[in-house]
Amino acid sequence: MRVLQKRLLGFIAMALMGTSPSWAGDPSMEAPPPKTDVSGLPAIAEGWAETNPYRGKATVVTTGRALYNESCAVCHGADLNHRNQVGPNLLRLERGCQKVEDAALHQRCLSDVDHYFVKSVRRGKRVLDVQHMPPWDGVLSPPAVWAIRTFIESRIEEQAKARVSAVKAAP
Amino acid sequence: MRGRLLRGRVIAAALLFTSFIQPVHADAQNSETLVINGCPIWPYTRCPGADLRHADLSARDLAGADFTGANMVRADLRSANLAGAILDRADLTAAQMQKISMPASSLKGAQLRAANMEFARMFRADFSYADLTAANLEAARPMFARFHYARLIDANLQETKFGSADFRHAIMDGCLTRYTVFLDANFDECKGCPVGW
């Protein structure tokens, strides 16, 4: 009976090894479901919106920050502090949009960044068969992803304001 | 003597005037934002199938941009940043791409005939099914790049660093390979690839 049990366990382990991806075992490549409570996030239309539906909503930032620090910080740095991190600096996502003065074009620019952000989060990053970021599709819900995006935007805004006040304070 | 001086002044004035004229193809909204044939030029821009022929995109930041199937014949992309950009099936015939930075970009099935990619940074770029006939890759760095089924006919590969590049099923013929580095490259099923590496 014991031998049968061992064989069964061995068979299950073998089957799991056969189906697990090449990056299995690497903590930075896993996409565990977040424990942060997202039930408090405002309801949004089903599916993936073209632009961030939470843009400018300060109430979402706290949840977004918790989600970010739970799911993204391992590669992109806690609270978006990118120093010595393997992942790219997410504070630079909107570098192209900050210079755009025309309102309509600015919206389009942010929409392009939103699209790129959601695509990267959902599909992950896989370049020439090397996995750099796990796919989060089905793990992070649309409200969770948009909350993270809103947190990143709030930090970008904070940085921009700090830069302006530094320029004003300069003699 | 006076006539010459006057003529010189007229030419200088004409040159000054023409320098203020915007290029015909650029309908820029302001000095910072360039929009070419409906395609805004910024990082992560989405311009699949855009008409960017002869466009001046030199030194522009176009990281993560989507130019799938775009027509970029003779486009000027010198020193541009196209890291992670998607250029699948784009037509880059005779494009000026010297010193372009395009690591991890995707150029699957792209037309790169006679494109000039001198000193380009192309680490881990995907050139599968791309046509690089008569392209210039002199001193370019396509390390770990993929050239599955790519055509490298009469290309200038002088001093190109193909370290760990993947040439499976590629076709190579008549290329200049003086001081070219093919260290750890994969030549399985490649037609005309060098031997002895």
Automatic annotation (TrEMBL), chain A:
Organism from which the protein derives: Methyloversatilis universalis (strain ATCC BAA-1314 / DSM 25237 / JCM 13912 / CCUG 52030 / FAM5)
Keyword field contains Metal-binding: yes
Protein name: Cytochrome c-type protein
Keywords: Heme, Iron, Metal-binding, Signal
Pfam families named in the record: Cytochrome_CBB3
All residue ranges annotated as the Cytochrome c domain in the record: 59-156
Domain of life: Bacteria
InterPro entries: Cyt_c-like_dom, Cyt_c-like_dom_sf
UniProt-listed Gene3D superfamilies: Cytochrome c-like domain (1.10.760.10)
Coiled coil residues, start to end: none
Signal sequence bounds: 1-24
Example GO molecular function: metal ion binding
Automatic annotation (TrEMBL), chain B:
Keyword entries, A-Z: Signal
Matching InterPro entries: 5peptide_repeat (IPR001646), Pentapeptide-BTB/POZ_domain (IPR051082)
Signal peptide: 1-26
Pfam families per record: Pentapeptide
Domain of life: Bacteria
Protein name as catalogued: Pentapeptide repeat protein
Lineage, broadest ranks: Bacteria, Pseudomonadati, Pseudomonadota, Betaproteobacteria, Nitrosomonadales
